[in-house]
Amino acid sequence: MIQTRNFVTILLLNIITCGIYGLYYMYTVTQDMNTMVGNDGRNTEPSTVVLLTIVTCGFYGWYWYYEQGNRMKALCDRNNIPCEENGTTYLIWILVGALICGVGSWIAMYLFLKNFNVLAAAYNQSVGGYNSYNTPGSSM
Description:
This protein is mainly alpha-helical. The protein is about 65% helix and about 0% strand. The relative contact order is 0.15.
């Protein structure tokens, strides 16, 4: 079962831990995305994501949002789940938001989590056998 996440909780834990919780968040979301998407050829090892984010002083995290956002959008489209944003949307919010004291990165995270939670709920429902989410031709 994929855990849905609360934006306010993540925001507060990120502030309290000076960003360390953000690395844990990236690790767990990467694991969950790999589970939901399956083998799409773009699976990433969660520990690699954390390590590259640390080594690149956070720049890899921007790419991570872009890449995971595109994976999420593709998964939503394949399964007829509403999702308006894609990786480019998150990246633009992060880059433009850097000019306004980093607020855009929180907006990007909010939009990302909104779509992630919709996917997680649909995935959890399909695993429980409540709908036809895993029908032939579907990737989940």
